[in-house]
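Lecture 7 notes: from sequence to structure.

We start with a single chain of 705 residues. Read the sequence below before looking at the structure.
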Amino acid sequence: MSKLVIVESPAKAKTIKKYLGADYEVKASMGHVRDLYPSKLSVDVKKNFETKYTIIKGKEKLLKELEAAAAKADEVILATDPDREGEAISWHLATVLGLDMKKKNRVKFNEISKKSVQNGIAHPEKIDMDLVNAQQARRILDRLVGYRLSPFISQKIRRGLSAGRVQSVAVRLIVDREEEINAFVPEEYWTLDAMLTNPPARKAFKASFVGDENGKIKLETREDTDAILARLEGAQYTVAELKKGVRRKQPAPPFITSTMQQEASKRMNFTAKRTMKVAQELYEGVDVEGRGTVGLITYMRTDSLRISDEARAAGNEVIRNLYGEKYLPEKPRYFKTSSNAQDGHEAIRPTMPDLTPEEAKSSLTPDQYKLYSLVWKRFLASLMANCVQDTAKAEIRAVGTADAGTDRYVLFTAAGHTVRFDGYTVLYNDADDAETGALPVLAENDVLKLKELKDEQHFTQPPARYNEASLIKTLEETGVGRPSTYASIISTIVDRGYVVREQKLMKPTELGFATTHLLREQFPKIVNTKFTATMESDLDRIEQEGYDYVRMLHEFYDDFVVTLDKAKAAMDGVKIQLEEDKTDIPCEKCGALMVIKVGRFGKFLACPNYPDCKTTKPYVEKTDAKCPVCGGEVIGKKTKKGYTFFGCSNYPECTFMTWDTPTKESCPQCGSSLFRTRGGVIKCNKEGCGYETKARRSKKAESDE
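Now the structure, written as tokens:
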């Protein structure tokens, strides 16, 4: 009996095929095979949001191959990813291939391991239409917002813009933070630290000023600080109170999607997109020397902290072998999953805890090794015993000459700790851990020796811009988006020019500001985090409780259409001109400064007095390079199909052109401008020179991939 198994990717197909017998043929759908028509709305709002799907362009040949394979097979098994998107892919495949929806032909694997695959095959299910409806509802929502709102935004700001339901909220968060930064007024404050020793010990430790006999004092000015310094003239520093204790630090839970993205960003400078790409590779399967093709981690789109008993036992055995029994807690540790999490999957963990990163290293790419190491260490650490620390906190009273013989004193505190038992930290330290050293041996009433008083002026700092890690954390905390969407949200808002990365921080562009201000004024719900989070909860209800998705769509869309009509009326004839679209190039007919427009074939210059003046001219992208033939400026140009090339501004007198990208560097041999080829070679294009070298790969370029 022949059976056809359909998965999404060739890598996953290769891994799964290894665990199945000769009767099974495994093929890949290469992701989605159907979607809404790209050139029209494809959602009939008058017929309860009836959808019109089409075969995705380029998938026709693949589908014919799948249809032929399905016709030959006695049974077709759909084994796409175990989430909404995967369920929708299975539903689309079943529809196109004419499979019986009532039949149990859907299997799911939380991990690509022999046991998981064979268990999944042995326990098929029906396609879960609640999951499919949740995915359809999200897709329809995004299509309705995109197709109704994007033309309005394009008309009011710049042609070609698009507005996304969740992406617009992410941009708003970044814009709001930038406005907080711009409005921030720094406040002065001072710190005062005493460097002390406890003779005969010579090593100094730091004690920080807290206040005086009346309580805490905030040093706001130089005068405040000088007043305290005056009281410390000739002071004697005495340990007034010493508190000792024991602190037990618990390890962080195993990864969920958001925390994996955050840690990969903090520790390895990975973007969310890069992290998910590598995680997908590890999940689908890697050819590991001595073990064959195996999936190395469990499904990487999850917000559950649950760990199976089998995985826990396997992890505990590895800990025993590597570190000993004492590194296991007396009782197993369980982490509580958040109330709005979907508990369909386990947390992200290694499928084979006994496969150490070092053992797998030779079989992995550098990125795969880094991420596998992170997942492996985090998982094992989550099972390990607490780190036990002995803590000490000293209150130190300083009585100056002027206060001698009274009850007056200046109060300092010092704190430190020593590690009694390293526990999980032998393997995995929290990225945000602040190391504090141990205090010297102290006892109450010890008289200390002052080595130095350090007073320093500070100013309060504005809130920090978001980086990818902090933005993902905020999206998660506010309930905006879901584990599967964080990476695409960030990629989209950067690719569309609403946000730029500056030293890994997210900064809104003028376009981002203008779009957010327009949406905030005319469509407050669209960019409201609570409203968007409620919609995400409604999608969860569709998936988990079978909530009527048509009703949910009506609740959103009926109000949205009214809001859109009001916005169109309120902004009739209004056009927002961005500063970045203005130029210093005068119109040849009327003298007005031309503006940058976007048409079917890209950017062009147009007179702002249109329709009274209809002058247009090509938009020229200037570069820092000089023509290697005549010394003129090298400018960017477009082919009829929209591809970018570079040529001389003196065309047609000079016909130099190249596909190579101009750089700011000059040739060390002849001084001409250097160009970068698509193969990563820096070369001189001046005839007869011949200089070339391999491009230097910057750390920033690596981290931005």
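Confidence is low (pLDDT under 50) at residues 698-705. Keep this in mind for problem set 3.
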